[in-house]
Hints:
Layout: E1 21-31, E2 37-48, E3 53-57, H1 64-71, E4 79-88, E5 94-96, H2 102-112, E6 113-116, H3 130-139, H4 146-159, H5 164-168, H6 177-188, E7 195-199, H7 207-224, E8 227-231, H8 235-241, E9 244-249, E10 252-258, H9 259-264, H10 269-276, E11 326-327, E12 337-338, H11 350-354
Parallel strand pairs: 3-8, 3-9, 6-7, 7-8
Antiparallel strand pairs: 1-2, 1-4, 4-5, 9-10, 10-12, 11-12
Helix pairs in contact: 3-4, 4-6
Magnesium ion (MG) binds next to α1.
Amino acid sequence: MTTSTISSDRVSRRRDVAPLLSIRDFVVEYRTGSGTTVRAVRGVDLDLYPGEVVALVGESGCGKTTLGLGLLRLLPKLGRASGSVTFRRQDGSEIDVLELKGRDLRNFRWNDAAMVFQGAQSAFNPVLKINSQMADTIKAHDNSSSKEILERSSDLLRLVRLEPKRVLNSYPHELSGGMRQRVLIAMALLLDPQVLVLDEPTTALDILTQRSVVDVLHEVRDRTGVSMIFISHDLALAAELADRVATMYAGRVIETGAVRDIFHRPRHPYSVGLIKAVPPIVGDLPDLASIPGGPPSLANLPSGCAFRPRCTFATAECATTDPALEPVTDEPGDGHEVACLHYEQVHLERTIVETVPIIPTEAQL
Ligand SMILES: Nc1ncnc2c1ncn2[C@@H]1O[C@H](COP(=O)(O)OP(=O)(O)OP(=O)(O)O)[C@@H](O)[C@H]1O
Ligand SMILES: [Mg+2]
């Protein structure tokens, strides 16, 4: 495990500066073939601070990819975003991302923010060597010389622990899955973005390769200072890489806080369920529990809290109130917020975390 690379002051480093990215009341709707609309992201507030890694976790279909695509203005044609996304450049100027057009929008997408797409390993052009694919990306945005392009590409490949000579002269099929994923990370960094959104960058990889990609991402963050939104349904990897976690359920962030608060003191019944469902890697499985039922259809959400039908804490009030994300006030936390009327009754029994050795212990965090 790589907990040695987790620094204990990760959260405090963001205290005295403004967020790099502020997302407010963010909503994404998709128009469907039948003319109806589906609200895939339903009013998300989230800040990303300089140099910070925020993990976005939650079950399949909860809106993680949609949120990532939406905030970089990369939604498919039938998707529409509203609310506000403010990006703060280093010179102090503020950009209203949802208002950007034409050239300004293209610049934002690469120079300010970039995305490593879910399942993108298969999106390489199979007939072009990696050097052409990297050069094309740079040439599309600036007029660097061939020498500069080669230097920049080589530096970034080294940063992601690949041997530039060999990789630049390879076709995508000549590289392993883990190598292709690292090339994608290097390509996303070509224009030196401040924000990197990584959508399930480890999902198709075996467990050892997953660890090496997480190690690489640690190093990328430490060496470049880039801020990351790390989308994953793998809680253990999120715990290793992130400073903060935002748990999504049915299009909303229902809990957010420092890694140690979310993994050791979760206060939303859904977060508790997610953590309890992580299998221990040694010993019996007596405490392993899944969350009953499945996520609701976005086209037909229950009234009040969307988690209510699966929740053992639900009361009549939960059917009429969809609680807002509010600070946890009954214990000290680091920006810990939860959207649950009954969070004061919700606690994770410590024994469960202790049987899950792949999640770092509180002392390691
Ligand atoms: N292009 C689209 N048109 C219509 N609905 C869509 C479209 N893309 C996604 N959706 C719907 O939006 C919801 C959120 O999807 P999204 O892909 O953002 O979830 P996710 O959390 O990334 O899931 P996964 O973990 O499987 O990647 C889903 O209900 C999905 O069916
Ligand atoms: Mg997704």
